[in-house]
C-alpha cells in the first residue's frame, strides 16, 4: 500500500470532522475519530468469524460455563464480539443507535472493551447522541474499509499515526510525544539488531522487546517485523508502557490484532508505576519526550534513589528536574539481562536523545554521574548523530545512543561516534517540523558504516573516514580541578570601607561602637601594607579615644573584610600558616583523565600565575561527550580580495539598476 492510500483512508476517517463542526471544538475531533477508527478496525478484523462467534455465544448462553476460551478459538484472535450487531446495522436504526452501540461495545471481550474505555467512548456516544450526530458518524465509518487484506497491520499503523498527528495539531499537543517517524525507527532497529543477525536465525529463537515509552507501538512493531523477517519461525514477545491513554489504546489494539498479548502493554508512568518490574529483556528501544520535566514523579523517584541506591533503577544519579531523558535510560539499563559465564545472555538497547544528555551537567552533577556510570561499566557502544528537522515536533539535532552489556571483543573499552547528519533527502511536503527524511539508501549506508566503524576509523583512505571516530571510554572523562590563588590585601580606612564596617552585624552588636568609629575617622595615617600594622594603629587610636578594643574571631573577620582591599602587591593572608584562597580569583580547569594535574598546573597555569595551587580536596571526576567538537572542521574565511571583488560587482549591479529606474 502506497502513502497516497494511507492518506486517502485517513482523510476518509477525518472527514467526520465536517459533521462535528459546531457541536465539537476542533481540539476534540480526535476524541471521536480515533476510537471509531479503532472500533471499525476491530470489526473488520473479526468479520470473517463474526457469525461463528455469535453462534457459540448463543450455545453457551445458559450453560453456566465461561465460554471465553471457546470464543477466542472461534474468532481466531485473542479478542471477540458476541453480538450479531454491526456498525452498519446500528446506523440503519437511528432511533436506537446509542443503545445498540452500547450493547455492541459491551459484547466485546474484556481486553477489547478496555481499549475503548481508555477513549472514554461511552461519554462520546452520549454526547453524539445528544447532538443528533451518532447515526451519521457511524454511517461514515461503515464506508471505511479496514479489512486486513486491504490494510495490513503495518499500514494500519501509518493511518493511526496520521490521525494522531492531525489530532495533535488541532489540540496544540506535541505529536512527537506519541510516535516516531517510521524511517527513523527502521534505522534504529537495524542498528540495534545488526550484530545479532546470525544468532537470530537459529531455530527456536525467542526474543523479548521493551519500549517503556511506546506511544502507538511503532517501534515494537518494527522490531517484531525485522526479527521475523530474519527468521520467520522466531517468536517475538513485545512489551511496552504508555502514559497517554489514546496512544496506549491504539498500541494495545494493534497487539490484539497481531495475535500478541495485549496485557504486555502497561498503562501509566514508567518511573512511578513500573509496569514491568523485575523483568528483563533482550532488546529495548525508546524515544522519550525531549526536555520534559519529571516533577510529577519527583517524590517517588527520589525515594527510590535514596532508599534503594544501586539496587534500584536510579542509583547512578538524578538529572535536573526539567529533563527526564536520562531517567528513561537508567530505567532501561536496569532491565538488561545479565551476561552468563560463557558470554551468552545480555541485552542491547537504543534510545533517541537530543544533544542535552551528551554534555549537560558539570562534574559531580547527576547527569555527569550517570554518564560516568555508563562509561565506566563499558555499556556505551556508540552514538549516531542524525540530521536535524527529522522529527514532527522539533527541528533540533537528535542522536541515537546504543548500549549493550555484551560488546563484541573488538569493541570492548571503546565507543563509536558516527556522524550521519548529511544522510537525508528533502520531503516533498513538510509535516510539522519534519522537512527531511531518511531514504532506504541512507539507512543502508548508516547501518553498514556503523557495522564497519572500527575498520573505517582506522582507514584514512576510506571515503567516509571523516564520519566515524572511535574513542576509549576514558577519553570522555576529565578531572575538574579547583585552582586557588592567595588572598592578597592592603588595609585602608576610607569612607567606603568604614561604611562597609558599619553595615556589618558583628560590629553593630559591639558596645561603644560610636567611640571606635570616631577614633577611626580622626586618624591621620589611613593605609597600611600589612594586617599587623593596621591592627596596631587602629587599636592605639581606639584606646587613646577612651574606648576598648574588641576581641574575638567575628570582630577580627568583620574588620578585615571591611578594610581589607584586594591588591596584587598586597600581603598574603594566612590561615594556620597556609595561604588563604581568594574566592574571587578561584578558577576551575578540566584536565583530561589520566593526566597529572600538577604537571598540567605547571604547564598551563604557572606561566601566567606563579603562586596558584590546586585544592585537591575539591577535585571531581566528570564525563561528557562533546560530539560536535570531535567532528568540527575548520572552515577558513574567504580571502578579503574575493569579498572585496564581490562587493564591487554588487555595487556595479545596483548602479545599473538605479540607472534604469532614473530613465
Mean pLDDT: 92
% residues in beta strands: 5-15%
Q: Helix fraction? A: 40-55%
Radius of gyration: 35 Å
Largest sheet strand order: 3-2-1-4-5-7-6-8-11
CATH class of the largest domain: Alpha Beta
Number of domains: 3
Give the end-to-end Cα distance, rounded to a whole number of Å.
61 Å
**Might you state the CATH topology name of the largest domain?**
Rossmann fold
Write out the CATH superfamily name of the largest domain: Vaccinia Virus protein VP39
Could you say what the CATH architecture of the largest domain is?
3-Layer(aba) Sandwich
Secondary-structure content class: alpha+beta
Largest sheet: 9 strands, mixed
Low-confidence stretches: none
Q: What is the quaternary state of this protein?
A: single chain
Number of strands: 21
What form results from the Cα inertia axes? elongated
Number of helices: 29
Offer a quick outline of the entry.
It is built from 29 helices and 21 strands. With about 675 residues, it is of the alpha+beta class. The chain has three domains: about 5-170; about 175-475, 3-Layer(aba) Sandwich (Rossmann fold); about 490-570, no CATH class.
Question: In words, what does this structure look like?
Answer:
By secondary structure, the protein is an alpha+beta fold. Helix 3 packs antiparallel against helix 11 (153-170), helix 11 (153-170) packs antiparallel against helix 15 and helix 22 packs antiparallel against helix 26 (553-563). The radius of gyration is 35 Å and the shape is elongated. The longest helix has 23 residues, at 640-662. A hairpin with a 2-residue loop joins strand 9 (425-431) and strand 10 (434-437).
